[in-house]
Amino acid sequence: MDVIPAIDLLNGRCVRLYQGDYQQSQVYNDNPVEVARQWSDQGAARLHLVDLDGAKQGKPVNLASIEAIIRAISIPVQVGGGLRDRASIAQLFNLGVEQAIVGTVAVENPDLVKELCAEFPGKIAVGIDARNGKVATRGWLETSEIVATELAQQMAQLGAAAIIYTDIHRDGTLSGPNRDALRELATNLEIPVIASGGVSSLTDLLGLLSLEPLGVTGVIVGKALYTGDVDLSEALKAIGPGRWQDVPPDLGSSMFG
Fold it and tell me: Which of 55, 62, 112, 236 has the most beta carbons within 10 angstroms of its beta carbon?
């Protein structure tokens, strides 16, 4: 199972939000490139970047920081936040991003997701962020009536490479991942599921390993890395080096997990 460090970008800085609340943000580092190098040096197989400004504004905002991170490290980078049109996604790929993560358009424009998956096979993941099982959109500022599992199944049929599932109530809270929701999702899908939200300890990570045979092939870790509750080097030794380490570079861009 991949352990994927998260770098959330807000105004060009590395921050963490509490339950997706922009009013409850904590700055961990003014230099996200420095943070990216730190995680890369400790053995991360890839990084998860979120453009929080982009998620709120509906278009990429922190492109300079994203490009600087890609130039500074050699491991793959996946990016989400505000990706709601083809031009924005193509722009990220031109910068060297390995995978683009769409969220809002999965709800509002599934036809676009289908087109993107066909044009960029293996490079489009869908982020499903849920409150009480219902999908939230537009930077978590709105909650739809769409059931997360149903959306995930639809996106898989349209060609999504993977589903990144975040339980908003647990994100940034260090309260543990929602294993029941992850189990239900993975059981109903044939594409990889990446867990996100709530990881607080190595015990949480080890607990997710029981879901790996079902298709939960990775876990994104954010706040726990920054608080020191999870040591990345120790986590990688316990969980594994990540699947990106096991494939040739020319195959990496076509695989998510």
Answer: 55
